[in-house]
Amino acid sequence: MNRLDLFNQYRSLLFAIAYRMLGSVTEAEDILQETWIRWQRTESVVQSPKAFLSTTVTRLCIDHRRSAQIKREQYTGTWLPEPLIAESTEVKDCAELAESLSFAFLMLLECLSPTERAVFLLREVFDYDYEAIAKTVGKSIPSCRQIIRRARQHLVLRRPSIAPISHDRDILVEQFLDCWNHGDLQGLIALMAEDVTFWSDGGGKVVAAQKPLSGCLKVARFLVAIRRSRLTPMLISQVAVVNSQLGVINIVDEKLHSTFSFEFTGDSIRSIFAVVNPEKLGAVKK
Question: Looking at domain 167-281, which of 3.60.150.10, 3.40.50.720, 3.30.460.10, 3.10.450.50 is its CATH number?
């Protein structure tokens, strides 16, 4: 098998690691391109192409996150990941992998350092053993175990539990879209938790809420106002798989205008993540 075939064999894994590390389709693709270049230039015999490629991707992502920190701090408004939109409304990933793509989970990972994030993802999401992780990030096995413990503690403090995806929540999204399409204020309120938060990422490119909106009444009124305002373009909204979970995409003049992703608590919507930044929507990966 030649090098191109080997690279393509592991490409989906490499993208999965890079996207979860960076939360950006564009940046993940750039990392894969650099990995391919380094793979081509390698002259020595590689015993394990998978280990070499995943190590290269992970180290490049760690370096990229460190260099991108200043840009994140200067970002206009709320930063959200670039959405991944599937062609079908059927979630094919296993529950663990699907959850690790959710906006809520990716946002949660932002509290970790680049190395902590890499170690946590390789162990908890991709099930790498500690020996492989240690070689990948250039640390000892005991150090990696300590990083995992510390990362878990950080995440538990911010989000005590991560609930799995369920069919009932798909129904909640469909009900949300129906109420939103009809401007049903009370219906929206009934679907949301009392302390629901609406996050909007316009990146300074388009009009979007600069700060999160909190409270079911405030969020519901805002959503209804979007539908009723003459300043807002006519949206054609439909359910779609966004980051391996059922969400909503909004179309204007046959072009993607925005995406909504959701986080749930019990049988209510806890968070809504709206990506409006056109630069992020132009890079959606299906």
Answer: 3.10.450.50
